[in-house]
Amino acid sequence: MEITNELKEIISPGKTALLVWDVQNRLVSTIFNRDEFLANTNKLIARAREKDVPVIFSKSTPLSDRYASPVMKFIWRERFKKMAQAQAPNGQDLTIPPLENDIVIPKNTASMFVGTNFELILRNAGLTTIVFTGIATEFGVESSARDASNRGFFPVIATDAVSSFDQEGHKRSLANMAKMMILLSTEEIIKLW
Question: What does pTM read for this prediction?
Fold first, then answer.
């Protein structure tokens, strides 16, 4: 079987979900490639809806200080002050509004599989592939993609529809993921759909 035929089978619309990871105003305001990121993410969402690929949005919903992980509190305080201080109107709101048939899953970890019903939704629908878009490449996107692979799902990273406030971290993450996952551009994914 040719690689393109294998990819077409892996990423076929009937087997695939599109995960739009934490595309929230506060995060979008900090990324290095905002316009390209939003254009490509919107293209993927539009094509997914055309092909009846489920569109699932994650929404970072931090726990109150009492219940938040000490690890995450330390990391945010010490390493991500710029991002944590980013001010944007309605900062927690999704930048791209979901439609009625889309799913929005609140979560408070860097993995879509921890503390959510995401895996149950995928398995109930018979989906085996997840196309990842979102922010930040080196945190939630990579963490969730690794979890997906460990659980037997095909993670597909839309390389020009993921981003970060840290361009070098983004590049390192894509290089890491290229060794163990499928990385495709928005246009390549759209052609396969």
Answer: 0.90
